[in-house]
């Protein structure tokens, strides 16, 4: 996509979407960002900075309602659909996550198809890839793998991302005019655009705060925010990404491993590195929904192969440790309470 285009970017207040907005504007494109409430427009303007603000506009859209979608698609060349809920804790009713994720994705695709907008890039997740019993003997999960929503490790978020992406591919198959690509990132680290960062950096904040005396043995496929945004832009520009899933992961680190890395960088912090026994986590999960949501992942071996995305990105992924370090530097600069070691 060499010439300037108008891109509808849904969920522009999101952690990933703000970086995408900035990169689109820097590339000379026009960005029409969707908001649930226009009261957050100034937040986005401040995050992306002064350059290109004359090419940034906003529309009010709701994933669960039809009004506004037709008008939002007017004059649009492509859609980047990033809007989807990503909570730290799991809801009591999993449909509170699944319904808006699936309905919102289909609502965006229907509106695009009706308006003659063919190019769509959907932000999915490795969560839609890595929950099945398929890979064995140490084989890594790849873009060919799909999560089984009935898998013992699949939680509400996992199901929401899997079902939303499945619905998108089914829609694209039924409507050949839609040229779909998905980007499937792991836990997104790196320097955020502002203090409204997402759940992934919340994990870093939790480690640095010293809140937990022990940590779950949880595998985390890690990718830098800059790489996730760059893959979205590359997907728009490269026609051979149509019909593909682009995994985004620089490698898997386990939660205690991340903590040990941060402890070496910040010895002044009281950072726990001990591994919590699973029987203890089962007990804590009765009272803490954030633990309950990841219990099925604890102790699970995991490898993710995102090498097929490297040629699209045009460079190697930022190393996982670099993304974690950048996250920690930002979090510490913005007010995590200090606890001496």
Automatic annotation (TrEMBL):
<dbReference type="InterPro" id="IPR050425">
    <property type="entry name" value="NAD(P)_dehydrat-like"/>
</dbReference>
<dbReference type="InterPro" id="IPR036291">
    <property type="entry name" value="NAD(P)-bd_dom_sf"/>
</dbReference>
<comment type="similarity">
    <text>Belongs to the NAD(P)-dependent epimerase/dehydratase family. Dihydroflavonol-4-reductase subfamily.</text>
</comment>
<dbReference type="Pfam" id="PF01370">
    <property type="entry name" value="Epimerase"/>
</dbReference>
<feature type="domain" description="NAD-dependent epimerase/dehydratase">
    <location>
        <begin position="7"/>
        <end position="239"/>
    </location>
</feature>
<protein>
    <submittedName>
        <fullName>NAD-dependent epimerase/dehydratase family protein</fullName>
    </submittedName>
</protein>
<dbReference type="InterPro" id="IPR001509">
    <property type="entry name" value="Epimerase_deHydtase"/>
</dbReference>
<dbReference type="GO" id="GO:0016616">
    <property type="term" value="F:oxidoreductase activity, acting on the CH-OH group of donors, NAD or NADP as acceptor"/>
</dbReference>
<keyword id="KW-0560">Oxidoreductase</keyword>
């Amino acid at each position: 996509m060499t010439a300037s285009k108008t891109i509808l970017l849904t969920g522009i207040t999101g952690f990933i979407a703000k970086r995408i907005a900035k990169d689109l504007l820097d590339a000379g494109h026009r960005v029409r960002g969707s908001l649930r409430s226009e009261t957050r427009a100034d937040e986005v303007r401040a995050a992306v900075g002064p350059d290109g603000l004359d090419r940034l506009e906003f529309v009010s859209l709701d994933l669960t309602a039809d009004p506004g979608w037709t008008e939002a698609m007017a004059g649009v060349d492509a859609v980047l659909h990033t809007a989807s809920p990503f909570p730290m804790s799991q809801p009591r009713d999993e449909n509170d996550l699944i319904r808006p994720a699936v309905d919102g994705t289909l609502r965006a695709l229907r509106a695009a198809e009706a308006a003659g907008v063919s190019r769509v890039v959907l932000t999915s997740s490795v969560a839609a890839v890595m929950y099945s019993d398929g890979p064995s003997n140490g084989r890594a999960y790849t873009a060919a793998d799909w999560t089984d929503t009935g898998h013992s490790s699949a939680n509400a978020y996992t199901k929401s991302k899997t079902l939303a992406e499945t619905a998108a591919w089914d829609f694209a198959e039924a409507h050949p005019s839609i040229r779909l690509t998905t980007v499937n990132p792991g836990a997104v680290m790196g320097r955020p655009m502002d203090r409204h960062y997402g759940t992934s950096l919340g994990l870093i904040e939790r480690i640095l705060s010293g809140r937990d005396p022990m940590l779950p043995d949880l595998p985390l496929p890690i990718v830098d925010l800059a790489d996730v945004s760059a893959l979205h832009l590359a997907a728009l520009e490269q026609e051979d990404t149509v019909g593909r899933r682009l995994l985004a992961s620089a490698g898997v680190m386990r939660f205690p491993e991340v903590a040990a890395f941060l402890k070496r960088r910040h010895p002044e912090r009281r950072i726990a590195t001990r591994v919590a026994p699973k029987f203890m986590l089962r007990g804590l999960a009765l009272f803490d929904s954030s633990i309950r949501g990841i219990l099925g992942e604890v102790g699970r071996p995991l490898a993710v192969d995102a090498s097929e995305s490297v040629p699209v990105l045009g460079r190697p992924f930022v190393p996982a440790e670099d993304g974690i370090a950048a996250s920690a530097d930002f979090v510490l600069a913005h007010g995590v309470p200090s606890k001496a070691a």
